[in-house]
Design goal:
By secondary structure, the protein is α+β, with helices and mostly antiparallel strands. Helix content is about 40%, strand content about 20%. α1 packs across α2.
């Protein structure tokens, strides 16, 4: 490692909920929110965004990140900047996030599964076929996204 670079494969599944689980992510908001999150994530040096999805009450994201990134700080920035963006575009109070989030790591060999899970969130929730581990979101009441 004479040039100071490191090899890493750090894949994260992120999830967070709207404030008090209100259905704030309406279709018009959802489209803008997804675009914004993808853009904001790819602005982070060394980060890649593979999927953004969710329901009207929560969001899921699959990313890879560099080893220098501090997940808690970065997720806080994603949440804060995304709600600011949506509220500027659609009006104050349009989107608010709960205090917590969920983050789990996964291997590259599970990337396809995680992407599919995120992209089909609405179907999984409608059929009540969610993977609880991927739905745990910390915050006010340590809830599972439903």
């Amino acid at each position: 490692m004479k040039d100071g670079k490191a090899y890493s494969e750090i894949f994260l599944h992120l999830a967070w909920h709207t404030k008090t689980s209100l259905p704030m992510i309406r279709p018009v908001v959802e489209n803008e929110l997804r675009k914004y999150l993808r853009h904001r994530i790819t602005e982070t040096p060394g980060a890649a965004c593979y999927a953004v999805g969710g329901t009207e009450t929560h969001i899921h994201v699959a990313v890879s990140v560099p080893p220098s990134l501090t997940p808690s700080k970065w997720i806080g920035e994603l949440k804060g900047s995304s709600s600011h963006y949506v509220n500027e575009k659609f009006g104050c109070g349009t989107l608010q996030w709960q205090a917590g989030y969920g983050v789990i790591t996964f291997g590259k060999n599970n990337l396809e599964f995680v992407i599919e899970y995120i992209e089909r969130q609405k179907e999984h929730h409608a059929a009540n076929k969610v993977h609880e581990r991927m739905e745990i979101i910390g915050g006010e009441d340590e809830e599972v996204a439903r």
